[in-house]
Structure formats: C-alpha cells, structure tokens
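Long-time lurker. I teach an intro course on protein structure, and each term I like to show students one example going from raw sequence to a predicted 3D structure in token notation. This year I'd like something fresh instead of my usual example. Would anyone be willing to generate the tokens for the chain below so I can use it in lecture? Attribution to the forum is fine with me.
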Amino acid sequence: QVQLVESGGGLVQPGGSLRLSCVVSGRIFSLVTMSWYRQPPGQERELVASIAPSGTTNYADSVKGRFTISRDNAKNAVYLQMDNLKPEDTAVYYCRRPPLWGQGTQVTVSS
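-- Reply from a regular --
Happy to contribute to a lecture. Here you go:
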C-alpha cells in the first residue's frame, strides 16, 4: 500500500523559511510526477509546485522565485523549500502522488 508522509510544517515569521518533506512508500517513485498543493483557510486547494520524473518543475505564479521543489529518487522523497514566506502562504500543505494525498502539514506565517 502506497503512503505519503509529510513533515516540516510549523509557525514562522514573515520573511522566514521552511522546508517540507514528503516520503513515499512503494515502488516506481522515480517514474511519477510529484506535486505540492496547499489549502488556505476557507479557500480551495491549489497547486503550488510539481516536479516530473525528468526533473522539470512547474510553479504557481504566487510562489515563483521563493519556493523550490526537488526530489531524491534514492530516498523516495520530494521536498519543498519555502523562502521569503508571506502571511498569504499560510495554509495546509499536501503532498500528492496521483491518485493519493498525504495527510497535510500546517504552515503558518505570522509575526
């Protein structure tokens, strides 16, 4: 059974950084596109970033230049480095390996 386990969320001040991790159990991790989504309070879930097996990345306009997605196929892990965080980045962040979702990790940006 494939499982996605996220970690790394927390409370950070504006301008700070966090690194989210998602470890995926099961095989063929290196052959699938991995993504991070987020769901701000009272809003719909939205795509933040994705990374293809080739390493090609895609970002939402709101996070370009501040967030970096990466993957380590040897560890079955995908990461989201978040720099220069803003209050509007506050959300529950989810790792996705279609059709599965992680449990989510809370990121709160506040002074």
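Some talking points for your students: The two ends are 40 Å apart (CA to CA). The first strand starts at residue 4 and ends at 7.
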